[in-house]
Amino acid sequence: MDNWIVDKPMRLDKFLKISRLIKRRTEAKKACLAKCIRINNRIAKAGDEIKIADEIQINLTNKIIQVRVLEIPLKNIQANQAISLYEVLKEIKKEDD
Length: 97
Description:
Blueprint: E1 4-5, E2 10-11, H1 12-18, H2 25-33, E3 37-39, E4 42-43, E5 49-50, E6 55-59, E7 63-69, E8 72-73, H3 79-82, E9 86-93
Helix pairs in contact: 1-2
C-alpha cells in the first residue's frame, strides 16, 4: 500500500474530497466558509490541517455526520478504499419541517 502515509497532515478540504465525505474540494471550501464543518469541536477553515485521530463534524443539508480520521492517504485513492480513511462516530438525520 504505497498510497498511505501516517505522519504527514493534509488540508481539510483535500481530505474531505479524497475520502468522499464531500464530492468536490470547492464544495468543501464553501462548507467551511459557511461554518458547517468542525475539527475537534472548533470551526474549521478549508486550509486547516488534519491528522490521524482528529474528529470532523460535517453539518450537511439533510444530516450531521461525525467521523474520526483513521488514515491519511498520500494521494488520491479508489472509491472503495475511501471508507477506510475514517470511522463514523455519529450520524443524525435531520427532520423535514
